[in-house]
């Protein structure tokens, strides 16, 4: 009997990006085929077009915030869903070809998220240099190695892989930055609930309705569904039109989160479900679940429902 074909993973490349590092923490990706792509849109389109089964792309950084291109591409085109998140620490180095000294650097290639996180260092050490946006940390490293730019901000593994000398390490303004990556597939049944899941959504509100965003938040709040991230992105239609990206605690299979989704369907112009998946957990994290605030646990909701049933039955004792 022929074996199951290996899963085809694509990731924001070239080789030795943080995204590749994050992908390699996923056991299934270690067993599968891993192909670097030049950009986030190319990675997601490979999945949409069936050339790959899953794409790992950066979504947000604890210092630089959202990776806009990923959010935009998730709501543009055929539906995709997140099946997993990976969070890893990131640190940056300044890499150059051998023999280039700091005082000779006029151009620095960097992913915009990377230059944002190293803004203070650049200001202090290379105030006159031109920083050029490129598609990833490894694209920056390759461009410096090939002499297109004088230096690159890149991952330590990128400097090693492309044989750059490290003129300065740990150049980020915050030493404890982390980046969150998401594994994206074509739509299918979500991973089983684990009891500690995240559900991601994009909602489009009716802009001419007073309180439209409040109505969205209310659908979550009244059901005790915790909102862990809200981000707005322009829809591209006209100034003032936004899509809101929401992350909520819980799984689409959970009763209250499911009801909140139905509520959003009623009050929003459009809701795009972007997946339910296990929350990333650090190895050092305790297994003990964080207790729900008073009045918002499943037991509280079940109690309230039972009380209502008794009232309806005339049981006021
Ligand atoms: O994966 C990479 O190396 C990227 O270029 C994306 C990125 C940029 C900045 C921090 C983490 C990931």
From TrEMBL:
It comes from Phytohabitans rumicis. Residues 201-278 form the ACT domain. Pathway: Amino-acid biosynthesis; L-phenylalanine biosynthesis; phenylpyruvate from prephenate: step 1/1. SUPFAM superfamilies: ACT-like, Periplasmic binding protein-like II. The record marks 179 as: Essential for prephenate dehydratase activity. It catalyses: prephenate + H(+) = 3-phenylpyruvate + CO2 + H2O. This is Prephenate dehydratase. InterPro entries: ACT-like_dom_sf (IPR045865), ACT_dom (IPR002912), Chor_mutase/pphenate_deHydtase (IPR008242), Preph_deHydtase (IPR001086), Preph_deHydtase_CS (IPR018528).
């Amino acid at each position: 009997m022929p074996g199951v074909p290996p899963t085809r993973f694509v990731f924001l490349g070239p080789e030795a990006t943080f995204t590749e590092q994050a992908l390699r923490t996923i056991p299934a990706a270690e067993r599968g085929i891993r192909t670097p792509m030049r950009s986030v849109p190319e990675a997601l389109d490979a999945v949409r077009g069936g050339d790959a089964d899953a794409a790992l792309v950066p979504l947000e950084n604890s210092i630089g915030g959202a990776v806009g291109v990923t959010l935009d591409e998730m709501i543009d085109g055929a539906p995709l869903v997140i099946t997993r998140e990976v969070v890893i620490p990131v640190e940056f180095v300044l890499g150059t070809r051998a023999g280039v000294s700091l005082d000779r650097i006029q151009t620095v290639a960097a992913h915009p998220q990377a230059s944002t996180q190293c803004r203070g260092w650049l200001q202090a050490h290379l105030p006159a240099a031109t920083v050029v946006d490129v598609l990833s940390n490894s694209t920056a490293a390759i461009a410096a190695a090939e002499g297109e730019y004088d230096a690159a901000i890149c991952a330590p593994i990128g400097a090693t892989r492309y044989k750059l000398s490290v003129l300065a390490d740990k150049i980020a303004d915050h030493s404890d930055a982390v980046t969150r990556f998401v594994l994206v597939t074509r739509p299918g049944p979500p991973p089983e609930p684990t009891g500690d899941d995240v559900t991601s959504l994009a909602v489009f509100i009716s802009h001419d309705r007073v309180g439209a965003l409040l109505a969205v938040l209310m659908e979550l709040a009244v059901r005790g569904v915790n909102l862990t991230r809200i981000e707005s992105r322009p829809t591209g239609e006209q100034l003032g039109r936004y899509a809101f990206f929401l992350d909520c605690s819980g799984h689409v299979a959970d009763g209250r989160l499911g009801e909140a989704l139905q509520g959003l369907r009623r009050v929003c112009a459009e809701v795009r479900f972007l997946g339910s998946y296990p929350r990333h957990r650090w190895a050092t994290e305790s297994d003990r679940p964080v207790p729900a605030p008073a009045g918002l646990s499943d037991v509280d909701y079940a109690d309230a429902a039972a009380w209502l049933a008794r009232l309806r039955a005339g049981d006021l004792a």
